[in-house]
Specification:
Length: 351
């Protein structure tokens, strides 16, 4: 019998951070998947990793960069282009030109240049000007690469910007961890999870707390201290009963979720919304924007205005055992093992 040749795979990740993030989880699961399939794996990144991904890493800059995220996604090309694998698996989402070297798989959310709501409006639009200049090259690469979107919402944005129809595979969610907090009755408060940075639109959670008069807790890693302080001032001014818990350890976060009765997601234009599924695994009924990938998971509790959201949140808190079992059942679809199986099936089909 002919011996099977070991595949060489380069995972392209613009940065390896110690901070929990959806993209970080995708990259970690991609590495696990490739190891499970017997591939020889390396990671190509721009700057020195903050955490050990467990495989060989090649980077350009000998220090870690936490800013200019969008440009790191482009500049990682300098490291990736030095590789000669059988295929690239790019978790940074930008179609940098790699297809001339090897088959290029890209796992992506909606591009920043799409018409979806985002913080890149007004003066912020200048930040994306170089992206507009490079757009023609990105479109050329997108036609050559194999793009996989993290939701149908993202797929729509990818088609709008790059002119291609991507395959859709939802991202992995640590549902087993959050199942530990599953419960039928909470203490009547809602929880919101999101990094304390302006793009997460956490001010919407403050407004909904003020309108609904419900008690709420916002949990997230600290990205912008000034933004967190502005949220606290806004909550005081609006009379919102909110607690802010930045950089909470995971076990403590689980305890907060175990006491909650519902979840509110504030981010319009979110490509998917992993915290939504995490909350569902714990039995929390989520209220999500219609303008987001999370709508695909729980359309019956989706809002178009904050007034609607406030009323829905009251209803979600009052939901009983049947609905809480249902949201848990839906959450199980997004387990990491299922993500790895679906993604490998797509790669194997395309190689």
């Amino acid at each position: 019998m002919k011996e099977r040749v070991k595949l060489r795979a380069s995972v392209v990740a613009h940065r390896i951070s110690k901070m929990r993030s959806g993209e970080g989880r995708v990259t970690a699961e991609v590495i696990v998947m490739l190891k499970e399939r017997g591939a020889e794996v390396e990671v190509r990144t721009l700057s020195k990793p903050e955490a050990d991904p467990g495989v060989k890493v090649d980077y350009v800059l000998p220090f870690h960069i936490s800013k200019f995220d969008k440009y790191q996604r482009v500049l990682v090309w300098f490291s990736a282009s030095r590789s000669r694998p059988d295929f690239f698996l790019n978790t940074s989402g930008v179609p940098i030109p790699l297809s001339g070297i090897a088959t290029h798989f890209i796992y992506a959310g909606a591009p920043a240049l799409s018409s979806a709501p985002s913080k890149y409006r007004g003066l912020w639009a200048l930040y994306l000007l170089p992206f507009r200049i490079l757009l023609r090259k990105f479109r050329e690469e997108a036609r050559k690469a194999k793009i996989i979107a993290n939701s149908f919402y993202s797929a729509k944005g990818i088609k709008e910007v790059y002119g291609v129809d991507p395959h859709v595979i939802y991202p992995p969610v640590e549902v087993e961890f959050f199942l530990r907090a599953f419960h039928y009755e909470g203490q009547g408060y809602f929880v919101t999870v999101g990094r304390f940075e302006r793009g997460k639109m956490l001010e919407n959670a403050v407004e909904v707390a003020a309108r609904s008069r419900l008690r709420g807790v916002i949990i997230g890693s600290l990205g912008e201290r000034g933004y967190l302080n502005s949220l606290r001032r806004m909550a005081r001014d609006r009379g919102a009963n909110l607690q802010f818990l930045p950089d909470l350890p995971q076990e403590e976060m689980l305890e907060v979720i175990r006491g909650a009765s519902a979840y509110f997601h504030p981010t319009l234009g979110e490509h998917f919304g992993i915290p939504v599924v995490e909350a569902m695994a714990a039995g929390l009924v989520p209220v999500v924007p219609q303008e987001s990938g999370a709508y695909e998971v729980i359309p019956e509790y989706s809002y178009s205005t904050l007034e609607e959201a406030a009323e829905m949140l009251k209803a979600a808190i009052g939901e009983g055992k049947e609905m809480r079992e249902e949201v848990k059942r839906r959450a199980l679809y997004f387990s990491p093992s299922k993500f790895r199986r679906r993604l490998w099936r797509r790669i194997e089909y395309s190689l």
